[in-house]
Amino acid sequence: MQTVTHFLVTAFAKQQAQRRGVLTRPVQTPALLLGAVLPDIPFTLLSLGYGLYYWWLGSTPTGESPMVYMHFTLFFEDPLWIISHNVFHSLVINTLLLALGWRGMRRGWRWGPLLFWLAVGTQFHTLIDIVTHHSDGPLLFFPLNWSYRFPAPISYWEPDYYGPVVIIVENVINVLISGYFLTHWWRRRTEAN
Ligand SMILES: [Zn+2]
């Protein structure tokens, strides 16, 4: 899914869980929201850096457009791209981070809750990506396995897997969540005055 969707859905899920009293521990909101977007940041930076480089050079090694070369060749074959993109998109790594954060939290270490909630964010992001990507989903068991991706029956961008419909649903969800938060903010503001 789009990075902004991860941010909004995580913020909404957290707010709803708190409202309904599901959470028994205080949430480290900045860590959670950072975790919601962190898995996509390396890919964004690589796309920007490589994109500018190829644009400046005027061509890619295969002659394809930079977008196609980056997202269909480097993404699947270049170790730097594979590692950067899958470190925080891995169920294995995120589960380890969750366990480490949980342990730190139980022992009263200061970084424990921060790591725990960051890992909740990255794991939630990964679970959403697993069910919304067909060909280019996360490498679930990275770094133990460098090839297995779950082929979800839908994709938020591939036309063969309902991409045009899924992206509309996704954007509607984003508008609804944004509207919900804006209404809440406005209500709080007017009540305070
Ligand atoms: Zn992602």
What is the gist of this entry?
By secondary structure, the chain is mostly helical. It contains eight helices and no strands.
Overall pLDDT level: 95
Amount of beta strand? under 5%
Number of helices: 8
Radius of gyration: 19 Å
Give the key terms.
binds zinc ion; 193 residues
What does it look like?
This protein is mainly α and 193 residues long. It has one domain. It contains eight helices and no strands. It has helices at 3-19, 29-37, 41-57, 66-77, 79-86, 91-106, 111-130, 163-192. Helix 1 packs antiparallel against helix 2 (29-37), helix 2 (29-37) packs parallel to helix 7 and helix 4 (66-77) packs across helix 5 (79-86). It is globular, with a radius of gyration of 19 Å. The N and C termini lie far apart (38 Å). The model has no long low-confidence stretch (mean pLDDT 95). It binds zinc ion. Residues 39-40, 89, 125, 129 line the site of zinc ion.
